[in-house]
Specification:
The chain is α+β, with helices and mostly antiparallel strands. It contains 15 helices and twelve strands. A hairpin with a 6-residue loop joins strand 8 and strand 9.
């Protein structure tokens, strides 16, 4: 059988309506594949084809790339063409040099040297920015850079760790401003009768020398009708929710405003009753309190997930009677009897000789005493299928903070560096990123449209 050849050709339609100027993009022979690796085109060949097609199309588009001025802004004389400025344009997999028309004034010599960046606010295609953001907020900048370079079959400066950082910083900070913009706060459409809000904090290792860590706050608002339960472990998955995040040291201004906005998006209205779950920290309750003027009422509940973790962290006390007394204290809290729980913990303090364990019990007792107005009958709420723990759904701190801002590589952050990452992660968690990412990217680069 005669070996056949092929070629990929791109053509331009001329003024006469005919396609002219055949340009061969790629050519090859159709050969018998000896293995799966011979099937079709290799990765690098596919990138090469994309590169050449993009170069051709960009060259045709370049005739439209010039500043919309015809007269000198200094002396008013008519401008003349002054050659081309080859400037950078970066697509998802390929990098290009695009010619842009320069202009000069023959009288005063004023010159215009436009670029893709000056004309559109960025030299990055929004599709590239989207992928850079998504890669960078799920793994380290170094790993994200390596991942994108592998997809492009070469190391690209546009995918450097610093470039990725700048992209996330621009888009994330734009998202942050958008989340607290009063004009972006929607009127409640559904005015839902009940909503749940969880507020929690997570500590992130600090780059600064003055402190070892700083706290980022996370809030999530959702409706129980959007929770799909897993009968095996009692946990659930939230199909629709709105999350907010802040790493700023701004007296909670950002997290409060963005949480209110998130609650409105979920359908909060003046008749809505909120059930609030919190670990007991004052700063978390403060965020919840900010919602009070915007709803009917708030039922505050000390989150059982955190209560259970505090009992677990105490560990074994060394004697069966001590462990039974501790278990009795937990049983009392489970049934909403905070006074009996504190009594049992006080008795336990008197029996223990280990000062470290006594101190742990004392802290636990103080924890319940400080939050006694938020302790409910958890047993009753469970039996009646009422919300009482954040364990029902995924842990927002784990999904928004820990998976990116912590880890085995001991990452260190500044507040300004962590904040934009959390904004994008919150948008993804809220299912808004897939729908509106293009608006976010273009909004981050004002002239991109």
């Amino acid at each position: 059988m005669e070996m056949s050849e092929y070629r990929l050709v791109i053509q331009k339609k001329g003024d006469n309506g005919r396609f002219v100027n055949d340009e061969i993009i790629f050519a090859g022979k159709v050969e018998r594949p000896e293995s799966i690796i011979d099937m079709g085109l290799r990765h690098i060949q596919q990138i090469d084809i994309i590169q050449k097609i993009q170069d051709y199309i960009l060259l045709q588009q370049s005739i439209y790339l010039k500043e919309d001025i015809n007269f000198c802004p200094k002396c008013g004389h008519k401008l003349k063409k002054n050659g081309l400025n080859k400037c950078s344009f970066n697509a998802v997999f390929t990098d290009h040099k695009v010619p842009v028309q320069r202009q000069t004034c023959p009288d005063c010599k004023w010159s215009s040297i436009p670029s893709v960046n000056s004309l559109f606010g960025t030299h990055l295609h929004p599709d590239l920015v989207k992928i850079q953001c998504e890669e960078s907020v799920t793994q380290s900048y170094a790993k994200a850079s390596d991942s994108l370079n592998r997809k492009s079959c070469k190391k690209r400066s546009v995918n450097s760790t610093m470039s990725m950082y700048k992209v996330v910083d621009a888009v994330g900070n734009y998202l942050g401003k958008l989340s607290i913009d009063p004009e972006q706060t929607p009127s409640p459409i559904l005015n839902k009768a009940q909503l749940v809000i969880q507020v929690d904090g997570g500590h992130i290792k600090s780059k600064g020398t003055d402190t070892r860590s700083f706290e980022a706050l996370i809030s999530t608002v959702y409706s129980l009708e959007n929770v799909k339960r897993n009968n095996k472990n009692g946990r659930g998955e939230i199909s629709l929710k709105h999350s907010s995040a802040s790493a700023l040291d701004d007296s909670q201004a950002h997290i409060r405003k963005s949480t209110i906005n998130a609650a409105y998006k979920e359908g909060m209205g003046e008749n809505t009753v909120l059930t609030a779950l919190c670990d007991g920290a004052d700063n978390c309750w403060s965020v919840i309190d900010a919602l009070s003027p915007h709803c009917n009422s708030i039922t505050k509940i000390l989150d059982w997930f955190h209560i259970g973790m505090k009992f677990k962290n105490i560990g074994a006390l060394g004697a069966q009677e001590y462990d039974e007394l501790l278990e009795g204290a937990k049983w009392s809290i489970w049934h909403g009897n905070v006074e009996l729980c504190i009594q049992k913990l006080s008795s336990l303090q008197l029996l223990l000789s280990d000062e470290l364990k006594k101190n742990k019990i004392k802290k636990l007792s103080n924890y319940f005493d400080n939050n006694k107005t938020k302790i409910v009958n958890y047993n009753y709420r469970k039996e009646h299928d009422l919300i009482f723990t954040s364990n029902l759904a995924e842990c927002t701190v784990e999904s928004l903070i820990n998976q990116r801002c912590k880890g085995k590589n001991h990452m260190q952050w500044s507040r300004e560096g962590a904040h934009p990452v959390l904004q994008i992660r919150a948008s993804i968690a809220s299912n808004e990123w897939p729908l509106y990412w293009e608006n976010y990217v273009i909004g981050a680069y004002p002239n991109a449209s």
